[in-house]
Amino acid sequence: MNAGAQLSVTDLRRAARHPVDHPVIGEHRQLGDVHLHIVNLSAHGFMVQGDTGLSRGERIVIRLPVIGRIEAHVIWQADDRTGFQFERIIRLDDFMTLIDAIQPNPRLRRRR
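Below the sequence we write its predicted structure tokens.
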């Protein structure tokens, strides 16, 4: 039996994404610290803007408020944007608390 979420990229595109403006430092096994700028976030993953220096399939560990350390891997790249999938799905209550913590502008939060 496989461990972890078995999600396809198509399934993830349907997930509700919340706009955020959150800098984070990712830990990469070979590159060390990688500075990332998260511009949207879902319970399944996130998108960053800017050059990451990472390729599809590479893994990083980031630290998010409420969630703590979580591993993610690159699933797509286009221009200066990169999409990451979390190694596990974030529970809804934790995710909503995370959004409240990193998106202080209530007008940019999705309605619940």
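Residues 1 and 10 are 23 Å apart (CA to CA).
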